Amino acid sequence: MAPVTAGAQTAGDATAPQTGADAQAAPADAAPPYDPRPFLTSMVDYRLIAFSCEQVLPGSPLSDSSEIAQFFIDLGQQPPVGTDARMDRIIYQLIRPQSASICTERLRRAALAYSEEAAAYEGQKPDGWPPAPRISAGPWCQDLSCADVR
Length: 150
Prior knowledge:
This protein is mainly α.
């Protein structure tokens, strides 16, 4: 077996040049198809945190993310339900202002992640899919510590 040097091409790496109809059907720099999983995951993550924090925060993160449920219904799917188990363990061990502060921060981070994924989705969404749902990221408390929450 002959040694392979950097930049060399082995027989297994070689691809036949495209000619005729093949060259027209597959452009050399074709982008891979859009994968909506990160977008869908970011929506579900936000919604689960909203379920967990619904009883802790003033206002309603569930109502403010209701378009997420409608998005899944529009696609013929069940909307996400449930809670974030990790958040549940944390918020029910703390006093309410601490829980509200943690919820606010987690919702804010989840909203930022979602907004990045929603921007990508809007630019590349599959045909027939609805627009990205709008959500609200608060503010849920009067200050960052949520000391006003009782």
